[in-house]
């Protein structure tokens, strides 16, 4: 909740009355959101061109994109109220405060749906063992719990609720700075967990080292999301409750960067058929034989079915498919290979 600025703070704002971060907000949204939209579009084009049915992870990423659109709308409405300029220039302080709370709520729904999409994709593509699925569920439930907690914290950070935009009302508020920092830290933690989870499985694939590096590289591009989450956590500490319309701009910017890069990173692994066609390389060579995989596996990722260590072949019998599946060549997995 915004607090009343002190006389010194008002004097500072008057001296810097011409300060303007509106172009920063507009530029960030104009660059990032189209990238996220393009990534989701290419994801569906890749699915359709590979004749893969749409799954829950595809629709979850669409939900994440729609929630991100909600953040963009909040930014636009905030600009109308005076976001990007100092507090003394706010046209509608109450409306601005309501927009901030709405953005906090939408942000948590957006991050949850994006991460849920990635985890569900892992569940389909990297179905290895019951333990791995349990890990995915644990991470997913953890993300859901702190997301729901933050939604309630954003709405009820001050009681009564209307005191969030009317500081003259007698109220009681929780320490939102600590809460926002904790949630941001949880986001960073789960970002790294989601990034690292598939790495051992990808490394174990029976693929040439170059191809394994390429596949792992697609997943590791999500590392920029970790950077965005960390930087967003840092700028949260710079918030000024006496001048939120100005100090909140870096948080707005890095929120959009974080969400859009998360969406793009979640879509990249599913675009491999498009990349292969664009470069004239259709996954594995003609000398490899394809395999028919378990239900729910994802041919678009073009992952080898067995690991480099033969002793682990049974454990990894249900991972991905060969690139030759794109050419219609399949063979049944023998009973001895099934888990």
Automatic annotation (TrEMBL):
Residues 291-314 have a biased composition (Polar residues). It is found in: Membrane. Its main location: membrane. Pfam families: Fung_rhodopsin. One of its GO terms (cellular component) is membrane. Residues 283-314 are annotated as: Disordered. The keyword Disulfide bond does not apply. InterPro entries: Rhodopsin_dom_fungi, SAT4-like. Signal peptide: none annotated. The keyword Ribosomal protein does not apply. Keywords: Membrane, Transmembrane, Transmembrane helix. This is Rhodopsin domain-containing protein. It comes from Letharia lupina.
